[in-house]
Amino acid sequence: MSLARERAPRNAAIRPRSNLFSVSLEFHPQAYAPSRDYDGRFGHFDFRKHIYGRMDDFDGKKEFECACQLDRLAQQGRIQFWVRNLVRRDGSSFFLQKADGRF
């Protein structure tokens, strides 16, 4: 990963099929600080399309398998990149606000 890529924020636009709404997200490298890096306990995979050079540990084998599939789709050009969400990390986690909490 180049130094410029590590320092520059990444932008992603989520474009639904209809024109009802649009969402833009910024991915700042300094804001992604996993508490524990993935250690290979669910298997080994050469993750090439995770937006950051390192990623947070997976909660289980199913999540690992899903990440592998996302990376394959990105390598095929079907998606640009993907990111593993940091869970319950103020300022770093993505969430949807609900009336009674977060999703």
**Percent helix:** 10-25%
The major beta sheet can be summarized as: 2 strands, antiparallel
Straight-line distance between termini: 32 Å
User: Low-confidence spans: pLDDT under 50, at least 5 residues?
Assistant: 1-5
User: Count of DSSP helices?
Assistant: 2
Structural class: alpha+beta
Structural overview:
Residues 1-5 have low confidence and may be disordered. A hairpin with a 2-residue loop joins strand 3 (97-98) and strand 4 (101-102). The chain has two helices and four strands. It is α+β, with helices and mostly antiparallel strands. The chain is 19% helix and 14% strand. The chain is globular and about 40 Å long. The chain has helices spanning 3-7, 61-75, and strands spanning 10-14, 23-27, 97-98, 101-102. The chain has one domain (3-28, 39-102). The protein has a two-stranded antiparallel ribbon.
Feature tags:
4 strands, two-stranded antiparallel ribbon, alpha+beta, disordered N terminus, 103 residues, 2 helices, two-stranded antiparallel sheet, 19% helix
Secondary-structure blueprint:
Elements: H1 3-7, E1 10-14, E2 23-27, H2 61-75, E3 97-98, E4 101-102
Antiparallel strand pairs: 1-2, 3-4
